[in-house]
Write a structure and sequence with these properties.
Elements: E1 4-10, E2 13-27, E3 30-35, E4 40-43, E5 45-51, E6 56-61
Parallel strand pairs: 1-6
Antiparallel strand pairs: 1-2, 2-3, 3-4, 5-6
Length: 62
């Protein structure tokens, strides 16, 4: 499978925001996430880093 885990930078540390992310879509200052089970989240954040080989997405507050 090719899903990734999304983490949110909080106080200089990465906290797991959502596992098994299938869709990630920037929408202005909000990032839309949906996992393989259909759970959806909208987070006021920006993409800091994506490492697709390691299946990691790091977001930081906008």
């Amino acid at each position: 499978m090719c899903e990734a885990n999304a983490y949110l930078m909080k106080d200089g540390k990465e906290e797991l925001l959502m596992a098994n992310v299938d869709i990630l879509r920037p929408e202005g200052n909000v990032v839309y996430l949906m996992d393989i089970f259909g759970e959806q989240r909208w987070v006021e954040a920006a993409i800091k880093e994506m490492n697709l080989v390691r299946h990691r997405i790091v977001l930081e507050k906008a």
